[in-house]
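User: Run a structure prediction on this.
Assistant: Running it now.
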Amino acid sequence: MTLNDARNRPLHDLRVSVTDRCNFRCTYCMPKEVFGRDFPFLPRAELLTFEEITRLARLFVERGVEKIRLTGGEPLLRRNIEELIAMLRGIDGLRDLTLTTNGSLLARKAEALREAGLQRVTVSLDSLDDAVFTAMNDMDVPVQRVLDGIEAADRAGLRPIKINMVVKRGTNDQHVIDMARYFRGSGHILRFIEFMDVGHTNGWKMDEVVPAADIIRTISAEWPLEPVDPNYVGEVANRYRYIDGQGEIGLIASVTQSFCSACTRARLSAEGKLYTCLFATHGHDFRALLRAGDTDEGIGQFLDRVWRARSDRYSDLRSSYAADLPKVEMSYIGG
C-alpha cells in the first residue's frame, strides 16, 4: 500500500536510531558541555529490542518504505548490531538497508556488517586536518581512524560509500577544496551539508551557515561541475558531477534550499518514538503499543493516523522563533 501524508507526500524512507549514545562530542550535534559525563542517556531496558525494531520495520515496509537507514547516536556502539541487520534483511520488500556512522569503529566492523546483509554506509567526516577534525569531534579522534574505516568498508563491498561533511563558517569551511580534492576519483560520493538548526543545544547561527550555492561555486572554479538528475523523488542531496568524469558530489541544503515539499522520511528514536520531521518538537510513542501487547493491525492503524496527519514543513517556514523551539536533538533521532 501507499501511505501519503496531509501534503500528499508518501512514506518511503525510515531512519532508525538504535542508540542515543556516541563516542564523539561533535560541537554541532552533541556539545560536551551538554552531553557530559553525567548526561542521562537511555537505560538499556528502554531501548527498542531488535525484535521490536524488526516488527515495526515490517509494518513500515508494508506501507511503502523501501529504504531503512540505521543511525544513532553512533549505531556501531549498539551491541550485536549485526544481528539486527540480518533480521531486517529478511523483510520482503525492503530494497535498501544502509547505516550512517562516524567511522571510528568501522575498520573492525565493516566485514561483519557486510556479511550480515548491510548494503552500504555513509561516513561523517568534517575535515582532513587533524587539528580541525579533533576540535570538531571534541574527543581527540584522529582523521586516520575514520579514513581506515572508509578503506575497510570499501574492501568489504559496502558501496557506494558516501562521505558527509557538515560545513560551518569559520570552523572548517576553508577545507572544502581539500575534501573535494581527496575524494575526487575515489569512487566515493562526498556530500556537503549546510550547518542546520537541529535541536537546541548546538548554538546555531545563520551567519555560520555556508550556503550550498557558495560551495558549488568554490569547487566548480577548481573543477567544473554540472548538475545531475536525482536518483529518486525526494532525494535530499542535489547531485553534481565533475565534467572531467572524476565522480560526483552532493549538496544537502536544508537551510537555503528547503526540500520539505518532497520529504518522504520518518524517524524512529532509540526508545520507539516516531518523529515525522528532523526538526520535530515531539514524537509518537510506538514502544508503549508494542509492550502493551497491541496487535500488528492496531499498531499499523496508529502509524496510518500519524502519517496521514503529517503536515511538517519546518524548513519552508524557518524563522528566528522556530529556531529557538525545544526541538529533538539530532543525536536522539539521527540526521
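The longest strand covers residues 96-101.
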